[in-house]
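Internal tracking record. Fields below are filled automatically when a chain is submitted to the structure queue. Please do not edit lines marked as system-generated. If the sequence contains nonstandard residues, flag them in the REMARKS field before resubmitting.
Queue: standard
Priority: normal
Entity type: single polypeptide chain
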Amino acid sequence: MDLTNWLENEALKLGWDYFGVADIRPYHDYLKSFSGDFICQYPLAIALVFRLSYGVVDSILEQEQDKQLSFNNYCYHAVDHLQNMNAVRLASMIEKKGYKAYPVPASYGVYQEKLAGLVSHKLVARAAGLGWVGKSGLFLTPQDGPRVRLTTILTDANLFAGQPTKSRCGSCTICIDACPAGAINELNTTTGLPQVDVNKCHKYQEERKKSWEVKIDRCICGLCQAVCPWGRD
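SYSTEM-GENERATED OUTPUT FOLLOWS
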């Protein structure tokens, strides 16, 4: 069994539902604008995708406070903790094979002015061919839509890389229409990229926390994730 297949099997055993490898060298200049020359030592990145519980995602359609708080805890504590622990384990396996490996934490912002993490998990997962970035700015798989969570391992291991996937959102505007913050616009016609105002989304979260009188890191509404037809049964 080659190294790529071996790692995929190990990743699936650790609980992920999708595994892919991206050649990120074409994106080094963009990624350097965040993390500097650090990124250039890693030609590849492993995309790891975890399928969320449909029961949990469906529960937020009515936007009830108790279900929302449970949803946020599930995504940003339980699932992210599981992914981060297992990314450390998988990275260790790669290093024991004699390669570099850098596990990038799920949903941990290090560039506050951009509300961004060290590396874009969505960029890596798309480049690996596991799905596309929708109008909502969320990553979608053909099987589960945006009902997924992502993490990444940067590496120089000798792995087989996939090819980027094109968007399948078409003319659908369900996520745009559902967004209570008005943060989502149609794709940029020039670049084909999502146009999401993350500051509007963040402001809506902060206002919701104040109105509910809760002190938590995040209080996302998640409607763009719940209403997407690609993730509905």
